[in-house]
């Protein structure tokens, strides 16, 4: 397979040295990827700037029509996209088929619809002297938007930003994660095939600091930055954006709490916890890493969760029909080592291991892959590092609580505030706790149930701003108020 190129001004560009891409299931090299230097990023920004006025002038309905065709084409190339996503991440084929790729198409359809039907605001103003004026707002694109995304749900997260940015009339430069370059490169082919004008959609590959990510976010020709990734990286990007006061939208890390009340349907809560802790190998920003369980059901819940964790099947190459949670590998050797270092840290902090804690052995090619065991710890105080830092792996700590007030306090005792989950059959409690939790989204008796029209984002270290529905349109466009004296 040829080394993955950039996509600039409607052409694939094989510029710069290459770095290796690996299959996390086996650790084997699957191909190379070109790394953009500052000159290549300049080219991409120039192409996006050249295309910006024409795309901004294109009627919203016409842009929406093109984006609907992108969604159709995604469905036509469904299997290729699934293969690209699975090859880069080692995720189960069934998950890519049911979640990652369909969500890509849904992102394009949803934002095409919303942007084409976006209302403006009108105010009639009466002055003290009895004069009248009509104020109305026009929404305009920001210009060139840099989109920097992580590796955990590469296609879903990239299209979540690409679709509204394009629908609002911006041109974009996407930098996918160095770990997962394939699906966005395939999307470039799709953009070309549906006839998106040259330069409207561009892709550059590379790393963060001292590479494509940094060159892009520091580039004076970029008008706004939308980023999903670690909170620490958000800090670095915000620093470069500050110089030119560029708008930023940040979807960052989490240390999400799950609260299980004794009145919950325990079967549902255990299965919900299995999903929320272990889906995607725990590598979803929304995954639960801290579980608090009301004391009367704590022992039973902990035992059942540990039993389910220990019995989870592991992903294997080519498997297409697996249902339920399947343990996938960590994205890289480096990330596996980071997760294992947290397992070690938890033990050194005094944790009791209820399940996992090590590396599975397969006796096949997966022994070269980046797997870790799904793991459940207990026995640590709230101040332990395992309870405070985002691990981003298949692991949770489980602790008992006695009152609703204590549960809310424990859940909110975090620098992060992305998502929280509540398991209860008490309706009053569900609303009360839902309103008290410091999180961008609170799920009650469910997890990762998303409506793309709702605001999505985090509080505290988990982000700045909201995307989703009208909130995406608000970020990716700017209002101009026109005041006409009547
Ligand atoms: P990361 O921050 O290491 O990298 C994300 C992207 O930023 C990559 O493309 C990377 O190359 C680039 N990058 C890194 N340093 C950069 C710099 N200095 N300047 C410009 N670009 C830079 O994150 P990751 O390890 O890829 O992803 C995991 C993290 O993402 C976790 O913290 C997770 O919680 C978070 N995440 C958040 C959400 C959300 O919606 N809130 C969703 C998914 C993942």
From TrEMBL:
It is an enzyme of class 1 (oxidoreductase). Keywords: NAD, Oxidoreductase. GO terms for molecular function: oxidoreductase activity, acting on the aldehyde or oxo group of donors, NAD or NADP as acceptor. It holds the Pfam family Aldedh. InterPro entries: Ald_DH/histidinol_DH, Ald_DH_C, Ald_DH_CS_CYS, Ald_DH_CS_GLU, Ald_DH_N, Aldehyde_DH_dom, OHmuconic_semiald_DH. Its EC number is 1.2.1.85. The active site is at 251. Residues 17-482 form the Aldehyde dehydrogenase domain. It comes from the Bacteria. The keyword Membrane does not apply. Belongs to the aldehyde dehydrogenase family. This is 2-hydroxymuconic semialdehyde dehydrogenase. The lineage of its organism: Bacteria, Bacillati, Actinomycetota, Actinomycetes, Streptosporangiales.
């Amino acid at each position: 397979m040829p080394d993955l190129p950039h996509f600039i001004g409607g052409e694939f560009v094989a510029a710069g040295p290459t770095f290796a891409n690996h299959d996390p299931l086996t650790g084997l090299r699957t191909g190379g990827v070109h790394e953009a230097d500052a000159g290549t990023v300049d080219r991409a920004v120039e192409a996006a700037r050249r295309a910006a006025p024409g795309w901004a002038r294109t009627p919203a309905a016409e842009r929406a029509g093109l984006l609907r065709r992108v969604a159709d084409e995604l469905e036509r190339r469904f299997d290729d996209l699934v293969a690209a996503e699975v090859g880069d991440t080692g995720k189960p084929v069934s998950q890519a088929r049911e979640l990652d790729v369909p969500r890509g198409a849904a992102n394009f359809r949803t934002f095409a619809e919303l942007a084409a039907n976006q209302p403006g605001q009108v105010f009639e103003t009466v002055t003290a002297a009895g004069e009248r004026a009509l104020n109305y707002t026009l929404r305009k694109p920001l210009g060139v938007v840099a989109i920097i995304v992580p590796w955990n749900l590469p296609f879903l997260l990239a299209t979540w930003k690409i679709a509204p940015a394009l629908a609002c009339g911006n041109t974009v430069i996407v930098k996918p994660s160095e770990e997962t370059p394939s699906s966005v490169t395939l999307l470039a082919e799709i953009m070309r095939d549906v006839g998106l004008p040259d330069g409207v959609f561009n892709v550059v590959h590379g790393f963060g600091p001292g590479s494509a990510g940094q060159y892009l976010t520091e580039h004076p020709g970029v008008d706004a930055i939308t980023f999903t990734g670690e909170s620490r990286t958000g800090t670095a990007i915000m620093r470069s954006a500050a110089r030119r006061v560029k708008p930023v939208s940040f979807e960052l890390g989490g240390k999400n709490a799950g609260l299980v009340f004794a009145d919950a349907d325990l079967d549902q809560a255990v299965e919900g916890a299995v999903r929320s802790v272990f889906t995607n190998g725990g590598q979803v920003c929304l995954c639960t890493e801290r579980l608090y369980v009301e004391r009367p059901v704590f022992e039973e819940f902990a035992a059942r969760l540990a039993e389910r964790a220990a019995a989870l099947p592991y992903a294997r190459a080519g498997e297409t029909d697996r249902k339920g949670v399947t343990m996938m590998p960590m994205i890289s050797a480096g990330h596996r080592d980071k997760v294992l270092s947290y397992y070690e840290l938890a033990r050194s902090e005094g944790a009791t291991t209820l399940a996992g804690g090590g590396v599975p052995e397969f006796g096949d090619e997966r022994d070269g892959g980046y797997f870790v065991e799904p793991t459940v710890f207990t026995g640590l105080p709230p101040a332990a590092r395992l309870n405070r830092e985002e691990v981003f792996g298949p692991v949770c700590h489980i602790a008992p609580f006695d009152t609703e007030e204590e549960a809310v306090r424990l859940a909110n005792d975090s620098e992060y505030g992305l998502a929280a989950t509540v398991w209860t059959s008490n309706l009053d409690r569900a609303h009360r706790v839902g309103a008290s939790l410091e999180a961008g989204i609170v799920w009650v008796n469910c997890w990762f149930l998303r409506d793309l029209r709702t605001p999505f984002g985090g509080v505290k270290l988990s982000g700045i701003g909201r995307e989703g529905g009208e909130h995406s349109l608000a970020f990716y466009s700017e209002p101009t108020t026109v005041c006409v004296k009547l």
